[in-house]
What we know:
This protein is 38% helix and 34% strand. The chain is α+β, with helices and mostly antiparallel strands and 182 residues long.
Amino acid sequence: MMIKSFWERLRDKRGEKQHGKLLFLLGIGGILLIFLSELPFGGTQVSESDQTDLDSYVQRLEERLAETVGAIKGVGRAKIMLTLEGNGETVYAEEEKTTHSETSAQSNANSSVQNSYENELVIVDGGSGRQALVETALEPEIRGVAIVCEGGDDIAVVKRITDLVSVVLGVPTSRICVTKMT
C-alpha cells in the first residue's frame, strides 16, 4: 500500500518539485550507504599494538640480517628490506572431549556406535582479564628480501649473500635481490 502511493507520487505531474526532491534524497541515501560500507565495523583488522609488534619484529630481523651480511668479505655497508606475507598466526590451546558409546540388541545382530567430539578453548585469568591460552604464535612468512650493499657489483659476493640469506631465512633464492649501493 505504501509502495503504491510512493509510485503514484512519482508519476503525479503536479508534484514535479517533490519528485526531484525525492530523487535527490534517494541519491544521497545511496551515497551514504556506500560510504558506510567502507567503515571498519569489525572483520579482520590488525590492531595498532599488533602492527607495532610486527613492525618491531621486521626491524629487529632486518638489523640482525644486515649485521650478518655485513660480516661477509667484500660486502661493506648493507641495507636490508624484508617484505612479509600476512600478519602471522596465533594458535590457541584447546581442550578436546571425546565420548564413545556402543549399543547392541541381543535378539538380532543390530548394533550402533556413537562417537562425539567437542573442542573448547582453554581460558586463563591473565593480567588484563580472562583470555584464551596461546599455544604457539607463528611469525609471518617472509615474501622477499632486498639487499643493497657496497659490494653488490661483485658476482661472488652476491652469490655468498644470496646463499646466506636463503639458508638463514628459509627463502628461495628467487625471492632475494642483491644490488650495488650508490
